[in-house]
């Protein structure tokens, strides 16, 4: 079953390689020619995927990459793994999904299996995507071709997150569509979880991410409440998670980042309005999490004030630009918001992140493109009035930071157990 995978980013590329490892001939499709050229040369552009793995699968003929969507005519299955961001009005933007559907529709054949993996609101697969596929192909979903939804569950930076071992939820447009999608994924994934429909599968992924968003908002709020009571929330969480039932640890931070948690819950809030349903928990969690960068900046201001300095004119170093530890993914990272607010308040800002040596061009942060990570040495760190830990990469030497930095604001409890002069480390 030769398979095309559209979108070769943090979801599509690992999935492509897993299918290829299992002997499936995979055709990777992306509109970014630089990615295609890198893959053809056996080079990786994702930190946790080694060049050697790609080069091996390319040389063996199990994996190839192209920008030519007409080659979908060669395959028996198509898996769509493209972004589903929010637009400027914080509303769902499924344009990448629909454009992918329009691009492949003229080339799909009878019997082709089409699966969407991009996180979205219930109804996207069996309404929106189905409509463009049927219009462009002249075929009928569930009769001439098979349609399904199977949400991605990638967790970059987690060594226990292995594509083959993560249970795969699958919902089909019809029972036969589900059967064909199960046949496709069974070639590469060990544990499959069939559900009754595409909508049930779409709703499953939203529940997973909304659960995380709401619980992160809870600890973010408690962090501020307990701080006012002079209680360390990190200590409280460590104690609470010793309970063997009824509790799951979530941790506070400077805000939400990545392609899922800051975005996906709002796909459901938007769709719920169509059914005249309120989503108060989701919206409140969004308000709490969105406000966290401003809370952190207030802590920065307080720390500087304690040294008779103001934010305006101070040199501030943000440690960690990626949205989570030990990855090179900076999408929706709260570090950008911190940099923005600090710069607006007149601070001279810089960042250090070994995973993001230079900021790449993007729609959201175009004016930061080309900015480079500062070097990690004593003279550089000492030159800043304050160091703000936004992402706690394991490769950062926090003991050195404790010795070198004049003042540290820690949003991740990274300085726990690190010796430093009294009053130099602030928690935010």
Structure summarized in a few sentences:
The chain is built from 13 helices and 13 strands. It has 428 residues and is an alpha/beta fold. The chain folds into two domains: 194 residues, NAD(P)-binding Rossmann-like Domain (Rossmann fold, 3-Layer(aba) Sandwich), CATH 3.40.50; 163 residues, NAD(P)-binding Rossmann-like Domain (Rossmann fold, 3-Layer(aba) Sandwich).
Structure characterization notes:
- By secondary structure, the protein is of the alpha/beta class.
- It folds into 2 domains: 3-196, 3-Layer(aba) Sandwich (Rossmann fold); 265-427, Rossmann fold (3-Layer(aba) Sandwich).
- Helix content is 37%, strand content 12%.
- It contains 13 helices and 13 strands.
- It has helices at residues 12-21, 33-40, 51-59, 95-104, 124-137, 175-185, 198-228, 233-240, 265-274, 280-305, 334-344, 378-382, 398-404; strands at 3-6, 26-29, 63-66, 77-80, 113-116, 146-149, 168-172, 192-195, 315-319, 348-352, 386-389, 408-410, 425-427.
- It has an 8-stranded mixed sheet, with helices on both faces.
- Helix 10 (280-305) packs across helix 11.
- The protein is globular, with a radius of gyration of 23 Å.
- It starts with a strand and ends with a strand.
């Amino acid at each position: 079953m030769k398979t095309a995978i559209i979108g070769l980013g943090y979801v599509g590329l690992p999935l492509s390689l897993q299918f290829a490892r299992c002997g499936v001939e995979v055709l990777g499709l992306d509109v970014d020619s630089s990615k295609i050229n890198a893959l053809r040369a056996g080079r990786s552009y994702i930190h946790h995927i080694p060049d050697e793995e790609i080069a091996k699968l390319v040389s063996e003929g199990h994996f190839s990459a192209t920008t030519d969507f007409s080659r979908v005519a060669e395959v028996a299955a198509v898996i769509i793994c493209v972004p589903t961001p929010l637009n400027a009005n914080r509303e769902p933007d499924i344009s990448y999904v629909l454009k992918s559907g329009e691009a492949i529709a003229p080339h799909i054949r009878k019997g082709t299996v089409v699966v969407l993996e991009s996180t979205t609101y219930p109804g996207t697969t069996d309404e929106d995507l189905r409509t463009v596929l049927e219009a462009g192909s002249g075929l009928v979903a569930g009769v001439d071709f098979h349609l399904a939804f199977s949400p991605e569950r990638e967790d970059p930076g987690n060594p226990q997150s292995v594509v083959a071992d993560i249970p795969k939820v699958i919902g089909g447009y019809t029972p036969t569509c589900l059967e064909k999608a199960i046949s496709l994924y069974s070639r590469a994934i060990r544990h499959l979880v069939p559900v009754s429909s595409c909508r049930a599968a779409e709703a499953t992924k939203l529940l997973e991410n909304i659960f995380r968003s709401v619980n992160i908002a809870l600890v973010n709020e408690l962090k501020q409440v307990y701080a006012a009571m002079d209680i360390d929330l990190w200590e409280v969480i460590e104690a609470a998670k010793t309970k063997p039932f009824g509790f799951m640890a979530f941790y506070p931070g400077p805000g939400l980042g990545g392609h899922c948690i800051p975005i996906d819950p709002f796909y459901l809030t938007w769709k719920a309005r169509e059914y005249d349903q309120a989503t108060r928990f989701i919206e409140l969690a969004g308000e709490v999490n969105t406000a966290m960068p401003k809370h952190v900046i207030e802590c920065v201001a307080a720390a500087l004030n304690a040294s008779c300095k103001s934010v305006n004119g101070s040199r501030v170093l943000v440690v960690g630009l990626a949205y989570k530890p030990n990855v090179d993914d900076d999408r929706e990272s709260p570090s950008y918001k911190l940099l923005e607010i600090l710069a607006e308040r007149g601070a001279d800002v810089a960042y250090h992140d070994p995973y993001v040596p230079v900021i790449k061009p993007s729609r959201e942060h175009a004016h930061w493109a080309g900015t480079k990570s500062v070097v990690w040495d004593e003279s550089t760190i000492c030159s800043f009035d304050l160091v703000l830990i936004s992402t706690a990469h394991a490769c950062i030497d926090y003991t050195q930071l404790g010795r070198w930095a004049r003042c540290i604001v820690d949003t991740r409890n990274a300085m726990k157990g690190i010796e430093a002069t009294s009053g130099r480390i602030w928690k935010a």
